[in-house]
């Protein structure tokens, strides 16, 4: 199946590059981590599930604010690297489990909060992922999503996903905010907060080096980006000097959704 092949590519890529994601500045630091915690407003008693934990940065950011965190990832090497990093930071209330975001190995209503950061653009079936989030959330629980987002404009959407797939073969698609709104609503969750699209800028060299791109592919991508239409160059804040890409920006947003409380579910069922 195509979905299985995509997940195998994800495992191959992240298995080979696991440590680079732990040390990646754009993953390890950033105002978005603190903002996720601030928007979630944890009270200290929550059991949290961090899906596709990557380098473990989100799990670590929440660990000191909640009762427990279960950090999952599809890739064994990535999970091992994340565990070593988080344990090294002294977080004792985080445990690690191998799991597929679209088929979670947890019972219904197991968590008070589910988080995912900079990962769903690798998921082949995001609607199924959101259904799984809704299933494992307890009534009243929160879903905090932070990911790269494609513009609503079709040309810019196609352009962004073209360069992301070129740079990273495990990239499936950056989805649009409107798509996430639809999947969240269809899963029975209520959107309570949506940040406007924000941009994050990357120095071109480290951005492609993290993907271990062959030199010829890197040069071809750089040439293609430098020749992009002006509208695309403006939208992605490309800085081009003497035909070389110095930096490029992508878009992201943080969404928060809630699973209706049990009383709300009961009353809606009787309508």
Report what the structure shows.
With 271 residues, this protein is α/β, with parallel strands linked by helices. The chain has one domain (2-151, 168-200, 251-261): Rossmann fold (3-Layer(aba) Sandwich), CATH 3.40.50. 45% of the residues lie in helices and 25% in strands. The protein has 13 helices and ten strands. It has helices at residues 2-16, 18-23, 25-28, 31-40, 57-63, 76-88, 126-136, 154-167, 177-186, 204-209, 215-226, 230-235, 262-270, and strands at 47-50, 68-73, 94-98, 111-117, 137-150, 175-176, 190-194, 198-203, 239-241, 244-258. Strands 1, 2, 3, 4, 5, 6, 7, 8, 9 and 10 form a ten-stranded mixed sheet that branches. The longest helix is centred in the N-terminal third of the chain and has 15 residues, at 2-16. It starts with a helix and ends with a helix. 38% of the residues are buried. Mean pLDDT is 90; it is low at 265-271.
